[in-house]
Amino acid sequence: MASTTTNKEVEKELLPLVRVYKDGSVERLLGSPYVPPSSPDADPTTGVSSKDITNISQNPAISLSARLYLPKLTDHHQKLPIFVYFHGGGFCIESAFSFLNHRYLNILVSEARVLAVSVEYRLAPEHPLPAAYEDCWAALQWVASHRNKIDDHENYSSNNKEAWLLNHGDFERVFIGGDSAGGNIVHNIAMRAGEGDHDNQESSLKESTGVKILGAFLGHPYFWGSNPIGSEPVGDNRENNFLHLSWEFVYPTAPGGIDNPMVNPVGEGKPNLAKLGCSRLLVCVAEKDQLRDRGIWYFNAVKESGFQGQAELFEVKGEDHAFHFFNPKTEIAKIMFQTLSSFLNN
What is the DSSP track for 134-179? Predict the structure, then answer.
């Protein structure tokens, strides 16, 4: 099979997102362009400042970076909730530095008045899962590591510490959140924060850093499985469904395939959802989204698991997947942002 634009042979593709050629090159067919960080003057509507931070991983073999966002401050000593965000894009497109994510977080940071850290994790197919999970966990650990450095300002630049987190981060109010594939990452990071990594004899986030995740929000999270629920497609239509094919594309070696607990946390071999490492959980779904039924099933499973925190489901009628991300200026999107803002502040 040849590409009509490059005349190179295609090895595999996940349409309409990504195409991989036999020479090893990757073409991303969708995704918004890169935009630089901005000053309050550059974005007078929100007054949000942003900047990019590189080399935040403790593993020197991995180049991990993030974009930080700070709302306009009325008190330069003000402490703000910390919000660690994992972007969507099917694990294979988009970026913490892309236009759509930058616009989204400028709005949310302005509305919620939080200090946000948007993680630039590695993408499939060049870096199949679980690379994104490992990167997001490393980024959360980097954020948490600032908790014990508050009184060590003179050394923060030499030991990879960030002034905004030191000066304005409230480590009693740490949140994680993400949309679509990012919502899936949120679930898996929250599980790891609560359980630790038993294979690597890793302790939970609180035991290792002293930081506990106060809240986690999953916006239209990507979960799937071999057995259909609700209005999900069945038979051949299911195996050929984009949501099924995308998991095979981004994690071809996943034990259990589409029923791996990282994508099907309510299936066979499911994790103990009572161990989610957060005190509050917000699951958002949209009526017309193919992922709606699975998101509600996940929420109900958390409620029935013995989870000791507070869990809330927020459903928007008449809207489709990630509507607030792609069209943030609509009235219903404004309600979504208000809901997220309230969650990050109450």
Answer: HHHHHHHHHHHGGGGGTT-GGGTTTTT--HHHHHHEEEEEEEEEEE
Flag whether the pTM goes above 0.85: yes
| 65 strand-pairing partners | 120
- Hey, how many other C-beta atoms are within 10 angstroms of the C-beta on 11? 15
Using one digit for the tens of pLDDT, what is the confidence trace for 137-169? 999 999 999 998 654 444 444 467 899 999 999
23 part of the active site: no
DSSP-assigned letter for residue 98: B
- Rounded CA-CA distance 1/310 in Å is 51
Torsion angle of alpha carbons 305, 193, 89, 82, nearest 10°? Answer: 110
The pLDDT of residue 260 is above 90: yes
Q: Please indicate whether residue 180 is annotated as part of the active site.
A: yes
* CA atoms lying within 13 Å on the CB side of residue 77: 0
pLDDT score of 102 more than 70: yes
Residues 69-92: tens digit of each pLDDT = 999 998 888 999 999 999 999 999
Q: Which of 180, 246, 259, 341 is catalytic?
A: 180
Q: d(Cα 87, Cα 43) in Å, to the nearest integer?
A: 21
Strand order in the sheet with 115-120: 49-53, 65-70, 115-120, 80-86, 169-179, 213-219, 278-286, 310-316
